[in-house]
């Protein structure tokens, strides 16, 4: 895997723009005939520029990615300007209208409509994406991970605003390999329905294509930290294994699975009724909602009778998304799983599935006990919603994706990250 230093990145950018322009002039009248390494320099038009959102003139992404104080302070000033916020926000209506001409939409939003390498083409990926709001966030995520050989299922919450549903449906209609889930649900926070939304997408993805090798589940506020090529290489190096948090459940979380829960007025509530022990006395482990798993793992979720029993048992627990996948990962016979013995425990830091900055694990730079430094954005339910100041640290981590981003609050963080990934993807293709 080739990771570029920031200086190299800047140099490459300049070089590729100059060479790209020359090459474009030279090849102007040549027909485009699909993927071929000799054509790749002419891909420089696929880089993001001033015209694609946040103007580079007022916001220097290279400097932000290097954590330069001055650039970060400038970004902070921009973020509180109403004019700036207005200039970068994309309303749902834009997507509904712009997608009426799909080829123009794909072109103007610079979707990569051809595989950047044979290696990526030979290793298709499946994505389950669960969304309920923030269409712009979703669309920037989609274009960052989009590749024609991959397949994407989108679950839009049944409670979502009409405009959210219409805009996302319109976006998916522009791609043959992006589709809306066949059975959408109304998801209740902390309830089984969150897991079921993913399972419904998994079932569709499993049925529609036999090609994909690995599945990753995302929410609309995730964003990749790696290019598609880097993701493919990291997944191949797992050699069929899965990579997700799976650890012993701590005492303070046990109430989640010992008491019966029910949904009252759209909110989950604990009752005093005790639950029976898990089926087959399965050890219940703990993890998070986001996983990187092989096709075989998904087959087990859909077909293994032990897992069907676990599903039934999980339906009245609290936040099964934080134990269901982790528990399956330690079940003997599940492809890519590891043994239940605690020596095989994997933390969220070691798993590659998701980078999350939990507020409770943050601390000052010189603290030995903290897991990471303080959040540079803001917190929602104890999770850091990243700011531009988190980028330098973030791109050095091994995780494939990070959670959470919010283009309404910090569009610069997302913009600089997607710009960085696109440079890297095009540079690696050269
Ligand atoms: C952006 O920042 C980089 C890194 O500090 C610097 O080399 C470059 O000149 C800056 N670009 C602009 C347009 O200010
Ligand atoms: C709708 O999209 C078309 C191009 O597809 C564009 O020419 C037109 O200006 C858009 N209208 C509005 C109201 O945004």
UniProtKB/TrEMBL annotation:
Domain of life of the organism encoding this protein:
Eukaryota
The identity of this protein, by name, is Beta-1
